[in-house]
Fold this protein.
Amino acid sequence: MRACHVEPTVAVTLFATALAAAGGRTRAGVVAVAAAVGTGQLSVGWSNDLVDRGRDAAGGRTDKPIVVDGLAPAMVAGAAATALVACVPLSFLSGGRAGSAHLAAVAGGWAYNFGLKATPLSVVPYAVSFALLPASVVLGLPGHPTPPWWLPLAGALLGSGAHFANVLPDLDADARTGVRGLPQRLGPVGVRASAALLLAAGSVVAVLGPGHPRGWQVGALAAVAGLTGLGLRLGDRHAFRAAMAVAAIDVALVVAAGTRPA
């Protein structure tokens, strides 16, 4: 389980599940979303540790079971393949359009692991996959409605900001092991600024996109503005925590806005 990237796997699955519940999915529909997203995220997490095992060993990563605990790569490969195979029928439980959108989002995660991670296009899978994920939840509603314009945009901004924030604690290790994605090419200052501004933009879209913002949503934007300012001034570790706090607010704003179709 430690090799599947537990925190992001649980966080993304809970986000999609909460969004499905807020959108009025039946209990069975909510369970279907949770199962599809959960297996998809497991496959992405396990494949990431599998592909990166040599780089993780070179970087001295002590949190990777394949590197420090002798976990067999073949076992991780089998787990990733099993999760991916299970994800296909589970995704299509929500319908053809929803299933296709979700599987495309999962494919983005695999594309990141298998090459895009180390290129200037490293942010693209995050933007595309996090746009498709909430869209797939809406497409699974009765009648398969078109997602509102702001929902995939907010998801793309949230995913892109999370990508920049996620690399902040690992910039030194990435430099040692030759990871040259877009954030690593921008350097610490550029990464902090990109993470803060992208996540703040996601908050604005989530609040203003549906129209008629409530008082607490405006208050959330004020909190985001304050955290964004802190994130631009603090060192990498504290900036990472500030960015994660903004990401949590973004998720709450998107879920609270619901999945009203366009």
